């Protein structure tokens, strides 16, 4: 581990590079790097077996020896940069700034054959747009025991800082794959998963539907909902009943409702 001289200026080339890395999806794609902000996110990243290339931290974090306590097995090849308050504030995604920021390489989300467990619970997010929603859903999916999350024609950048933050770092350990609608459907059919889509138009609710042991749950995007492709290729359509006046739920809330009901059905009767 090499600690470089302290960076004091906000006009330093490294700081300008990090600001672009935080703000620009195109830049992240071009150089194949992204940033993680905060101790929790970095620890989750490392716990998932991923590596960091660089670390930027405040003087207080370095002075208190927090780095060696937090990351005892940090690679010797990693570059560590000490920052004063102003440059750290400039590169931070959070309004209050941060003590530590990591830089890591992106990884391929190409659609391959995931390893599904016997219960085979898979989540498909069709045309998801909002990074905050994606991050929150990854956190929900991990909690609900989802085997994999498949992004169908997604327009969201998986390595957006808001995905990292709202997933609480779980984006690094949750199996996530991305592909076209046709390729995702092909994988589901090949894996013998029952394809179930959610729609307010469906006649059967999540409480009435008899879920198969191996299920692929399809959730529509935020702005348009479920498209015609999945309506034509689904095995069943189900709805989430609502008593109030709201016509729909936030995508993460709707996903959590459906996954919770699927899990409740699969639990042994002694603990249901």
Low-confidence stretches: none
- Following the backbone from N to C, one meets helices and strands in this order, namely EHHEHEHHEHEEHEHEHEEEHEH
- Total helix count? 11
**Spatial strand order of the main sheet:** 8-7-6-11-9-12-10
Strand proportion, as a percent range, falls in 15-25%
Could you say which overall geometry the principal axes of the C-alpha atoms support?
A: elongated
For this structure, what is the CATH homologous superfamily of the largest domain?
SPOUT methyltransferase, trefoil knot domain
Counted beta strands: 12
Assembly type: single chain
Description:
It is a single chain. By secondary structure, the protein is of the alpha/beta class. It is built from 11 helices and 12 strands. The protein has 2 domains: 2-105, Ribosomal protein L30/S12 (60s Ribosomal Protein L30, Chain: A, 2-Layer Sandwich); 121-264, Alpha/beta knot. The protein has helices at residues 13-23, 25-31, 39-47, 59-63, 66-70, 85-91, 131-143, 161-166, 181-190, 228-233, 251-266; strands spanning 2-7, 33-37, 54-58, 79-83, 100-105, 121-126, 148-152, 176-179, 194-198, 204-205, 215-219, 236-239.
């Amino acid at each position: 581990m090499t600690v470089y001289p302290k960076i004091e200026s906000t006009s330093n080339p490294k700081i300008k590079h990090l600001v672009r890395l935080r703000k620009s999806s195109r830049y992240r794609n071009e150089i194949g790097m992204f940033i993680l902000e905060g101790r929790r996110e970095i620890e989750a990243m490392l716990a998932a077996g991923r590596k960091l290339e660089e670390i930027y931290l405040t003087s207080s974090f370095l002075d208190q020896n927090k780095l060696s306590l937090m990351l005892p097995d940090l690679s010797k090849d990693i570059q560590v940069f000490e920052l004063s308050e102003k440059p750290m504030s400039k590169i931070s995604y959070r309004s209050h700034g941060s003590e530590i920021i990591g830089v890591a390489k992106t990884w391929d989300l190409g659609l391959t054959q995931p390893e599904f467990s016997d219960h085979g619970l898979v989540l498909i997010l069709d045309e998801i747009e909002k990074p905050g929603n994606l991050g929150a859903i990854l956190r929900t999916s991990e909690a609900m025991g989802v085997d994999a999350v498949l992004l169908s024609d997604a327009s969201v950048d998986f390595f957006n800082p808001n995905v990292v933050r709202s997933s609480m770092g779980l984006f690094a350990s949750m199996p996530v794959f991305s592909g076209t609608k046709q390729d995702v459907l092909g994988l589901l059919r090949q894996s013998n998963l029952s394809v179930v889509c959610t729609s307010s138009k469906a006649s059967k609710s999540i409480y009435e539907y008899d879920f198969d042991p191996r299920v692929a749950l399809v959730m529509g995007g935020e702005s348009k909902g479920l498209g015609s492709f999945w309506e034509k290729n689904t095995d069943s359509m189900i709805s989430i009943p609502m008593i109030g006046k709201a016509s729909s739920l936030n995508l993460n809330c709707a996903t959590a409702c459906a996954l919770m009901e699927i899990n409740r059905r699969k639990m042994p009767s002694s603990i249901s």
